[in-house]
Batch of 2 targets.
Target 1
Amino acid sequence: MDAGVVTSARVTHKGASVDDIAAASPDSQRTAVSDLLAHPDVEEAYVLSTCNRIEAYVVAADESVGRAVLAEFLAGVPEAATVYAGHDASLRHLLRVASGLESVVVGEDQIIGQVRTAYEDARGVGGIGDLLETSVTKAIHVGERARTETAINEGVVSLGSAAVSLARREAGDLAGATALVVGAGEMARLAAERLAAAGVGELIVANRTLPHAEHVVSELEVPGEAVALPAVGSVAPRADVVVAATGSPDPVVEPDDLESGGEAVVVDLGQPRDVRPAAGDLPGVAVYDLDDIESVTENTRSRRVEAAREVEAMIDAEFDRLVEQYKRARADEVIAAMYESAERTKRREVETAIARLEENGEVTDAHREVLKAMADSLVGQLLAAPTKSLREAAAEDDWATISTALQLFDPEFGADSPASTFEDSGSERPLEAVDDD
């Protein structure tokens, strides 16, 4: 277990705009983790990047170091849109994220898969060490428990389904309507399924990779058509509802694509934006983005209040276990390093003492046992007080003391020290006299 502490920074839908989140978005989670690890003070790193949140977690010697690294990482984001958290707050927040309590759609199921994927990405580039291994896997465990032991994920459970709910609220009955889904990833697929369930008469799926769009269409029980992404402009005018959810860094739906059509409700789930905002200025075209999804999910949120209380209680209990696990592991690591260092020194000194005694006469097994027992006793007595202090430091969250002690008693500490101090002391008094006193 590393002796560092976790510090995190996040830019999410709760305090940041879609554009703020876009500014924080890395090219990829793996690249972001690699960039953080390139900082010499960062021991571990984990980055979670979704359409409505960018979160970065680092392990460093102390919180101030971690915060400085994260501030640099999110330098392009307005300070007011960024939330920093120290060790305990970071751990608790990660449990809440995986459980769905921090999602736009409370309890949505996609987030736990995203947490897993981010874990695999970070581990693939060496970002996951002992400390983050424990915390992220704990978060995944809690997220699974929340969904199997409570009703937190009943009802609207994805942004895709929330987008369709918003479209139904704004456009009315979707029966017989023509719908266009731009994208073929998980979120787009879920939106397509919900649109089909709402009874649309035709569903068009546009995607950069045409076979992926064809696959989505093939699984729907409504008349459908798959087109390549460049064909959006030719099919969009037919659509009464457009849901866009791609991973494109630039808008894929332009005002010109919608200009020749009639009234349309457009829901942009992209982050960065998939729909050029100016499309909302067209007569009869209403464009909604992730910020607008909040209003749709309020009913779901209120219905899940009781389940959320259950999940909160679960998180409290699991968080306490996680913290205690960290405290025990950190104290035990430092104590083990301290005793290992002392044991190495003790063994070297006993061997040196025995060698000196053998120069002055026979050394019996009894002599050897007395020397070893005395050395063991000295080590035990000398380390009893620091052992007690280290356990108290861990219990009191005094991570600075823990970190300092680990550096002092690193397993390599003293390995290159000079030969025995006893040998250098110049003492000529034979050790047999110790037994005679």
Note: Residues 64 and 364 are 57 Å apart (CA to CA).
Target 2
Amino acid sequence: MPIIVNLDVMMAKRKMSSGELAEKIGISQANLSILKTGKAKAIRFSTMEAICKALNCQPGDILEYREHD
């Protein structure tokens, strides 16, 4: 898939665990795991906003586009 999710990278940079982030943004750890692994089909803007606020980052720090080879 050409959209790469770098959520785990940002979490590591901010030294934040999955449990802590899930609690801060109000979603389950299972749903956060789906986002982290790139298996999600969509993400709500409100969820992206909450993630960016919690991690003090921009959406582009979390999502990346790579052209298919």
Note: The longest helix spans residues 45-55.
